[in-house]
Design a protein that fits this description.
By secondary structure, the protein is of the alpha/beta class. Helices cover 26% and strands 25% of the residues. The chain is built from 10 helices and 18 strands. A 9-stranded mixed β-sheet has the order 11-10-9-8-14-6-15-18-17. Strands 2-1-3-4-5 form a 5-stranded mixed β-sheet, sandwiched between helices. Strand 8, helix 8 and strand 9 form a beta-alpha-beta unit. Helix 3 packs parallel to helix 4. It is elongated, with a radius of gyration of 23 Å. The two termini are 33 Å apart. Bound molecules: ligand AOF and zinc ion. Ligand AOF binds next to loops. In the N-terminal section; belongs to the cytidine and deoxycytidylate deaminase family. In the C-terminal section; belongs to the HTP reductase family. Pfam families: dCMP_cyt_deam_1, RibD_C.
Length: 367
């Protein structure tokens, strides 16, 4: 079993940087980067831009041309062995005459899952596995979770005051956090395949739940990919005049019963079962994964946030904390059942803390 050299790590790091350029555009496909090196010189680079388009390896092979012969290829995800929207990259690498392939991680797609690596080895190519695997996995938390568990990766966004309050008694919550934090939220919306909100928040704030290009601090490659908007509306409270229905990207209205009314064609009804007081959110996530949703951004009120937390469906918590106090008669962050002993408290782990404008941004993961 060959191991990675210091140079291998450097080139793989470069492939990861390339893959990151597809952060906002590749879904439902994974973000993948590729670097081709011949005699210690980078001769080809590429990354996946858009589903249906060429894979990272193809772009890099075109870039390298004849110089791919005898070269070493660094790719963040195992080269594919199947014919999907495009033909197998493993075959293209073999045909180009590369002699060594360094792979960041095995493809979790059951259609590939080791077969790409096997194909390369059978053609006499030396394959080195698991180079910077953790960093490669971080590129695609949603794609990996969908392939392995049939569910999307869930980020829950919360905005809080210093005293942990999230809205006024009336439900008013715009704007606790600063414009910088709201711009940061836009980047999460942009990388997500779906935004989930609750009917209460939609009725209180009348949001568009879309990505506003002018608020992003990066340039898009190609057209903007708007996430699907999902609204949990079990009591059928929403009407078609709300702002979110006037935008063309799909809206899924989730309830446990049939809904009548005159809805535009981009609005789809998802009829799901109910567990206790709430819609079965796990079933909702499974339905979204079936529709190739990789990363989900949950942005709603305390009821929806509490329901996701209680069901244990949150992979990552993003809390923006503003330097204000809101006082007693305001709403808490999460509607959760009362607990009587501290040992019943759900514990999370801080992953990072940064300043975003005037606010603190905390990222946490379940223990
Ligand atoms: C990508 N980009 O750079 C690589 C991928 O639908 P297709 O034909 O584009 O195939 C998608 C699958 O190909 C994807 O699920 C993954 O398993 C594999 N590798 N995909 O979109 C890439 N290298
Ligand atoms: Zn491929």
């Amino acid at each position: 079993m060959s191991v990675c050299t210091q140079l291998d790590y450097q080139y793989m790091a470069r492939a990861i940087r390339l893959a990151e350029q597809g952060l906002y555009t590749t879904s439902p496909n994974p973000r993948v980067g590729c670097v081709i090196v011949n005699e210690d010189k980078v001769v080809g680079e590429g990354f996946h831009i858009k589903a249906g388009g060429p894979h990272a390896e193809r772009h890099a092979l075109v870039d390298a041309g004849e110089l791919a012969k005898g070269a070493c290829v660094y790719v963040t995800l195992e080269p594919c062995s199947h014919t999907g929207r495009t033909s197998p990259c493993a075959d293209a690498l073999i045909a180009a005459g590369v002699t060594r392939v360094v792979v960041g991680m095995v493809d979790p797609n059951p259609k590939v899952s080791g077969r790409g690596i096997e194909k390369l080895r059978q053609a006499g190519i030396q394959v080195v596995e698991n180079c910077l695997t953790d960093a490669c996995e971080k590129l695609n938390p949603g794609f990996i979770k969908r392939m392995q568990l049939g569910k999307p990766y869930v980020r829950l966004k919360l905005a809080a005051s210093l005293d942990g309050r999230t809205a006024m008694q009336s439900g008013e919550s715009q704007w606790i956090t600063s414009a910088d934090a709201r711009r940061d939220v836009q980047t999460y919306r942009a990388r997500s395949c779906a935004i989930i909100s609750g009917a209460g928040t939609v009725l209180a704030d009348n949001p568009s739940l879309n990505v506003r290009i002018s608020d992003l601090n990066f340039e898009y490659l190609g057209e903007v990919r708007q996430p699907v908007r999902v609204v949990i509306d079990n009591q059928l409270r929403l009407s078609n005049e709300l702002k979110l229905f006037s935008l063309p990207s799909p809206v899924y209205l989730v309830a446990n019963k049939k809904r009548s009314g005159d809805w535009p064609p981009h609005v789809e009804m998802l009829e799901l079962s109910q567990t206790g007081q709430h819609i079965d959110l796990e079933e909702c996530l499974v339905e979204l994964a079936k529709r190739e949703i990789n990363e989900v951004w949950v942005e709603g009120g305390a009821a929806l946030a509490g329901a996701f937390m209680q069901a244990g469906l949150v992979d990552e918590l993003i809390i923006y904390q503003a330097p204000i106090f809101m006082g007693e008669n305001t709403r808490g962050l999460l509607d959760m059942p009362n607990i009587t002993e501290l040992k019943q408290a759900v514990r999370w782990q801080f992953e990072s803390h940064t300043r975003v404008g005037q606010d603190l941004k905390l990222i946490l993961r379940a223990l």
